[in-house]
Amino acid sequence: MKQLTLSQAWQLEDWATIASGIATIDFDKESRHRVQQSHSNMLKVLNQGQAVYGINTGFGSLCTTAIPHEELQDLQVNLLRSHAAGTGPNSNDAIVRLMLVAKAKSLAQGFSGIRPVLIDQLLALYHADVLPVVPQIGSLGASGDLAPLSHLCLPLIGESKVNVGREIMDASKALSQVGISPIVLEAKEGLALINGTQFMLANGLYVAMEAQRVSYWADLIGSASALAYEGSSAPFQPGIHQVRKQAGQAFVANRVLEFTLGAADFQVATKHVQDPYSFRCMPQVHGASNDAWLHIEKILLDEGESVTDNPTVFEDAILSAGNFHGQPLAMAMDYGKLALAEWGSISERRINQLMLGKRGLPPFLAANAGTESGYMILQYSAAALVSRSKQRSVPASTDSIDSSAGQEDHVSMGANASTDALEILNNTWTILSMEFLAAMRAHGLNSGLMSPIIKDLRDAFMDAVQPASGDGILAVDMEATKQFIQSIDIEDRLAFNA
């Protein structure tokens, strides 16, 4: 188990341990003091009788409605219940863990006016692996991720549903089983819990972790395809990339050379004058996606250290502003969608090249072309996924919509951008697994070129998956291949530019 404290600045590998549930989170003295002081500051202002948004007023367009002191607790509970209006598929366990801890870390900055017990409760759920059921759809990404965070936080008070060991049960029952008592919310606490960007942030962090693995496999699988296609190493030579000054493409080119090392004929000019772009331009395309995700990773990490609820409690004032607005994440995830989609798009083009009956390969990689269709329809399915990824790549951040009776008149749609990215991520994993399956078939049909790394990988694959040698049910081999590549632990998966 990795020990982390809320006052530390975390890197992506720290968040990865949280997503896996193998980190312990310490609510350290420094953070606890900040939170307690912020709570005291909030009480001081509240006791002065001032009208403060979300503390003693209604929410959204009801901000001018004053709430009597004796109803402040009811106000916070009603807020969580009424805003739990999510729909669609549920978030996976890793994302929910990230949400719980990201919310705790944001509140621990000490500008939210809440009691430390809220953070204790969030971390208690995380450490007990009692994971709230959080639907993916319902946030506009601007007044915070209101609906998803309401679902996340209702279990703190013993309401709604949680997932415990893959069993969905009432939160009250789950809390009782693990010895956690429901808490009673006080002034501002419900608002602090659901106002923030932790849903889109958690989605973004999860995709960023997976993007690093996708990057590695895209280069590895592309290398296997290039060897099967009897490609040239010329486009990957260091001098080419030294004169371009793009770090991402130089890194990819070097990694391809490492993956193909030992394939002697690949290291010299071949009889083919030029390879198609999908092989020749792997460094430029893959590298651009790498660089995009390095940029996005910084934005996500900065957001993970930020205060994103509203209002913000300072020592001498409580200010209502807009830190909940998800525009930075919305635009970043839209960028990330493009980067993910391009890994899939160029992969599908390499699949197509392997189907054309060129360079010693039979049409559609069929051992008995005509009687057998080979992998003809594999390319169809890959193309369909590429098309879906293109459709999901339309920027969500440009699609603002008016809400809350005009009070919230510009929203980020960052939540939709992040869930679009999740779908494109899965599409890209599937396309890459299809390319890998095709490349492995091609190596079996053509002596081609082979490096020790690719040979060892192919041997492991053939032993584990045992794909059909002729026409079989492709969907079975496709799914088995995807499971195979996703199950392999890649040593440098957490470093785009090791």
Main attributes of the structure:
498 residues; mainly alpha; Fumarase C, Chain A, domain 2; 2 domains; 3-stranded antiparallel β-sheet; two-stranded parallel ribbon; 18 helices; disordered C terminus
Can you give me a brief rundown of this structure?
The chain is mainly α. The protein is 54% helix and 6% strand.
How far the N terminus sits from the C terminus, by CA atoms, comes to 24 Å
CATH superfamily of the largest domain: Fumarase/aspartase (Central domain)
Question: What summary fits the major beta sheet?
Answer: 3 strands, antiparallel
Total tally of structural domains: 2
Tell me, what's the shape?
A: elongated
Computed structural class: mainly alpha
CATH class assignment of the largest domain:
Mainly Alpha
Query: Given the structure, what is the number of helices?
Result: 18
Helix fraction by DSSP (H/I, runs of at least 4): 40-55%
Order of helices and strands: EHEHHEHHEEHEEHHHHHHHEEHHHHH
Radius of gyration: 26 Å
Low-confidence runs: 492-498
Tell me the number of strands: 9
Question: Which fold name is given in CATH as the topology of the largest domain?
Answer: Fumarase C, Chain A, domain 2
Strand order of the largest sheet: 4-6-7
Mean pLDDT: 92
Beta-strand percentage range: 5-15%
Second CATH tier, the architecture of the largest domain: Up-down Bundle
